[in-house]
Amino acid sequence: MSTFAMVFPFFECETRKMKKFILKRTVPSFIFTRGLLCLSAAGLLGISSVKADIQDGFIHGYEFDNSYSDMTGSASGTACRTISISEDGFLGQAVLCNKGYVRLEDSHGTAFGIEDGDAGKMTILCWFNPTSTSTSERVLVSNSNWKSGKNPGVVLDAQYKGGPYYNIGDGSDRIDVNAKLSIPANEWQFTAITADLTTNEAYLYYGTADGTLQQMGSADLSKIDTLLSSYKWYIGEDYNDYYFYGLIDEVGFWDRALSFDEIDQIYTAQKAGTSLGEQVKLASSASTAQAGAYTDAATWTGGVIPKVDANVAINAAVTSAGRSFNGEAVVGENGSLSASGCVFVGHSIGADGKLTINGGKNVFSGNSTNAFSSALIIGFQGGEGEFVLNGGSVAVSGRTYIGYDAGGETSFTQTGGTYESTQNIYIGASAGNAASLSISGGTLSTSETIAIGTGTDSTALMTVSGGTVSAKNLQVGRAGAGESAKLTITGGVVKVSNAVYGSSSSASGNVAISGTGQLLLDSTYTHATLAGIRELTELNIEGSGDGNGAIRFLKSLDCSVPITLTDDAAVGIGSDAVFTQKAAFEETGSSVLTILGGGTLALSAQSSFSGGTVIDSSRVKLTGAGTLGAGTVTMRGNGALEVNAAENEEKSFTNQVAGTGQFLKTGAGTLNVDAAQGVEVSSLSVSEGRLNFQGNMTGDFLIADGAVFSPGNGIGTMTLDGDFTAKAGSQLVFELGEDVSDL
Predict the structure, then answer these.
(1) What is the mean pLDDT of the chain?
(2) Would you say the pTM of this structure is higher than 0.70?
(3) CA atoms within 13 Å, Cβ hemisphere of 599
């Protein structure tokens, strides 16, 4: 390369404010440097000879290959109105806009570094192919309402007044740059814009698919205070319905102003067939996850390109601004992963990701500027994902989605360690998704809700075979009708601090508890169904949990769902709680129901199980049509059986009763007891109404003031082995016949 220079003395002169002048890339070109005017045939010194690192500052990229997702995972795209993925992209596929747009789920552009203290550097570029030669507003990218050019934000328009057109407003002032070309229809074209509020420079670039890149204009930004607006970024529209009609591809965002050479490097490589994503990955392999082990914390800091497409081992503390795992990554016992943005496992169509954590203190601190305020998404926008927690801790500050618009099965498996979240955990979050949460050890907790089946027609399964799960709320079948939502507990404990409920009247789901599994409910609410699980199709229980009941209620609530006993089962009720079961206890075999915990079971429906009932230091109250199983009622400790007959009501009780405890007849109505099989209790008392007792009884018998007792319903016989006490005001009714009597 030949160069020549002309050197002139630099004399002291008056300082004056000058308007900027722009040197186009022609040969030769002039620059001033410390008093010397240098002429270089190579163009601007130090630029063309240095290969640009285009990864630096790259924050978002949209290639629209089978999805609208951001290749970095930090600002996913949401399809809005009439758009689709087209096979006719510049490289691969593209988004086809027909009065529709892609909304970037990155609130107000804060990920661009456009904040206080760093108030404005950016580059936006893309390829576009319009369907017409219109010269009206056809917005490619914007975060502004372009009804007025002074409105805050940025607009890149393809065709306005000839186009491409570039506008920035801050609410008070505006700048506009217009290339004033006649943009052809049905041809791929390239455009880019840059802005730097520290140098007060803005540039507009343009190129064709078979041409060269040209700088088309510039502007002075000295009157512009910020690039921020109150809106999210749109691709294909602004906030005033100025739609682009046609194809858009290879959209890239940087939080710095790229140089001409850097943009030309990207443009030239794309024309040669190298996509934006491939270029960014190739630009700096040291910052992009490759196969192997990460033992140096500095190797993976910042996470500019948070994609892992290879198998990696994380054996040191590494940080990330969000990361997508489309290969397999393992956090070792001596490693940790700290992500300030959302962690995606299986991101975009065709992606298959897996993240395994075996140890370390891991932090996923998703925030409101990330997709759906989330910290962990397993299976996203067509991807399949698997998350495994075997040890260590994961502290989560955002939502967890297991299957969000996933393309296949997604799973969260925990065998140990702790997973602690401050926000909701969703299983099967989108329509048609198949998702599972399986816990066999460790602790999983959230201070908010675990929602099973939040997407219509989703299949959502939560299985607990060990460990401890705790949540403020548990929703089994949260969304519309048709989803298959199921909670299965075979071991361990699921603790619900506040309530179990569904949020839609058409939701459905089922719960199955067996073995040593336990569902512990500490609800402060009462609902129409079991803690509000609306349209619960099944509630199956067996086993005694940890000895406190397969289901344990610490506070009062109602249930209108039939409970099926698949084997012997125990229900625990807190000493101050009343569990009102308005539906029957049913069975699939011969089952024994045990009530324990010191509280009260109020049963108002006729049960159909054939086994017996054990009342262990608790109370069972039968009201209305309420009955127990056909077998023996056994009372332990200070257990109590209360049978209530309301005024003007007559009902019968035929179960054998044995053990210690009290048999209580309450209510102003009549109770007929047929004790052919015997009643053996500590005491039987009649507090009001009438009791007709036929058969044998062991225990003390007490009739209160105002109550009525008769041996048999009609002429009958009662044999008593115990003390008989009739209070003043009580009535003893004996019937006489011609040949027989009660006496």
Answers:
(1) 80
(2) no
(3) 22
